[in-house]
Write a structure and sequence with these properties.
Length: 253
Amino acid sequence: MIDTHCHLNKEDYDDVNKVIENMKDNIMIVSTASPNDLKEVIDLIETHKNIYATIGIHPEFADTYTEDDLKQVEKYLNHPKVVGIGEIGLDYHYTKENKEKQEELFRKQIILANKYKKTIVIHTRDAMLDTYNILKENKNKNIKCNFHCYSGSLEMAKEIIKLNGTFGIGGVLTFKNEKKLKEIVKELDLKYFLLETDSPYLTPEPFRGQKNEPKNIEYVAKKIAEIKKISYKKVIEATTENAIYQFDMKNSL
Ligand code: NI
């Protein structure tokens, strides 16, 4: 299994080594959010064979990041275990007053993705249409993108597929009241889906309310199997293959 999007900051877990140990036969792609995460994430990928990373600056830091932070991201994009740029995008949930700054940071990082031919991992919250438009205008056609923890509509999902896009599916799919995402999983081909946990957040049922960790990805896979009426094994095989393609990992496994 590949957890294509998680956070493994030491400070978030009682024992991060145990969390990593629990995924020892599987792969994790750890994502940075804050520029301050970068060093810790690079350490993780250099000390664990089964951990890879996507790096980038989350829109939450649009007002506070420095040019040097961006230079650091660019520097590590050449690292053989950095498989994408992310999570990047727009977040209007808490504020859209700094909309221009968020857009500028997003655009700069899409340009980096084009330059280094890296997959883009998108974070978008209450900003789907702007995110889509900026991506469409700035991303080179051949660059792949993944909407992590997708929460948009089925119609938008079909447009995103035309942009070489896929969808990260996590714990939200297992929530009892979640209907839209279940519909999307049912309607679209399995090839467009990646498994993710977004640990330590968004814990799937039956552990909702507790801290999440990558091993819980199996509950997301089980839910996809149930919705699509296929075997759990098939979901694991297909989503693993999807992730390897999405992040060009074939030669580095
Ligand atoms: Ni995340």
